[in-house]
User: Fold L-aspartate/glutamate-specific racemase from Paraburkholderia fynbosensis.
Amino acid sequence: MKMIGVIGGMSWESSTEYYKLLNRHAKARLGGHHNARSLMLTVDFAPIEANQRAGDWNALGQQMADAARQLERGGADLVMLATNTMHRVYESIEQAITVPFLHIADPTGEALRAAGVERVGLLGTRYTMEQTFYTGRLREHYGLETLVPDEAGRADVHRIIYDELCHGNVQDASRAVYQGVIQTLAERGAQAVILGCTEITLLIKPEDCALPVFDTTALHAQAAVEWAIDTHQPRG
Assistant:
């Protein structure tokens, strides 16, 4: 099994989910006492979040590239970034390393197309919902039309991620807010919903949702394990 390198810590709450999922998928595939061979480099989220708010994506790209290089030097055969938002700078990571980089949108796009979905709702941080680095990739690579919440909905979804979920604070009232946002997306024609922030999986489970759920965290982790076992090249 190849070594999976994970850039984590954004937030560490979601990185713990990645670690569990990587090992569960490896055990499911290989059985017995097997688990995933992995390295995780955990960054300090405080300066990352500050640079996000400041819009300093160049600095963020340098930070992510440095982390990826450290993982490659440590023996990683594949690098993955355990956050949706920071894929805003994925090109900086790809350019910094010689091993493959597994983009988080690709396993989700492939799963959506396999399910016959053409129009999908997206929940995530403001950066993911409002910028084009994520929705554009889904459109260009997978022909998907992506719907995002209205301004008020985006504000609620973003606030709950940063003020609650990043701190491990899971509130029933916030779940109800997300369910309302998802219902509105369904009324606008969404056939499914992407949980496009790795912390959202702490709050919304498939049984909580009126639409089929495509959880980027779970799909990303599974794709990494499949690659590590089968040594297929991920899409760049």
